[in-house]
Amino acid sequence: MKTGKKRRASLEKVQHGHRYSLQEACQLVKEASFAKFDETVDLAVRLGVNPKHADQMVRGAVVLPHGTGSTKRVLVFAKGEKAQEAEAAGADFVGSDDLVAKINDGWLDFDTVIATPDMMGQVGRLGRVLGPRGLMPNPKVGTVTFDVTKAVSEAKAGKIEFRVERAGIVHAPIGKVSFEQAQLEANTRALLDTLVRLKPASAKGVYMKSITMSSTMGPGIRIEPGSISGAVEA
């Protein structure tokens, strides 16, 4: 497979096998990007957990201080007063049975789904559609709630959800290459701090085994966990 000149130049900027400080990585990910569009910056964190064990499943959400750089289309399942609250908070789509039917017909033009607890009976029927896409509302990440104003506001402000995969890795977006270095640093720290707080009591040994930052088209940049306060634990 041929590698383009821009891709090769990008790869040459990253020292293979080297672990960079968070500050260096946030600067390097910007320098190594080469696409004509504003690439998304992602973080891949390999955790010392076994997701096959229920007590070692890591799942949660965090509001990034500088957002993701993307505008989320928020859908809310609610009725009556709560539907009015959702609309006032800026939700893009609000409804109940009408939205359930629309989604069953194949409509999926939204990024985040929030539901009031009394709507979960109807929303639960969409599990096969929303579940595989990571869109199913869940009380653990604050998307099943009567406080729809807060939920919608957080989603619009840059709230991201994450869940450890089978290989023990958490993938999450933490901004765009157009962000300032300090903004990428702050978003990264917010995500890592949340992961540390969610460390399962049954997880033994080193919790954060590796941290890798990359842009959509750019190379992976390994980060030294010890350069981030609280990120590495024995």
Can you lay out the helices and strands and say which pair or pack?
Blueprint: H1 5-12, H2 22-31, E1 40-47, E2 59-63, E3 74-77, H3 80-89, E4 93-95, H4 97-104, E5 112-115, H5 120-123, H6 127-130, H7 148-157, E6 159-163, E7 169-176, H8 181-197, E8 208-215, E9 221-223
Parallel strand pairs: 3-4, 3-5
Antiparallel strand pairs: 1-7, 1-8, 2-6, 8-9
Describe it for me?
Strand 8 (208-215) and strand 9 (221-223) form a beta hairpin. The longest helix has 17 residues, at 181-197. The relative contact order is 0.26. The mean pLDDT is 92. The strands form three sheets. The chain has a four-stranded antiparallel beta sheet with strand order 7-1-8-9, with helices on one face. Strands 4-3-5 form a three-stranded parallel beta sheet, sandwiched between helices. Strands 2-6 form a two-stranded antiparallel sheet. Helix 2 packs across helix 8 (181-197). It has helices at residues 5-12, 22-31, 80-89, 97-104, 120-123, 127-130, 148-157, 181-197, and strands at residues 40-47, 59-63, 74-77, 93-95, 112-115, 159-163, 169-176, 208-215, 221-223. The protein is an alpha/beta fold and 234 residues long.
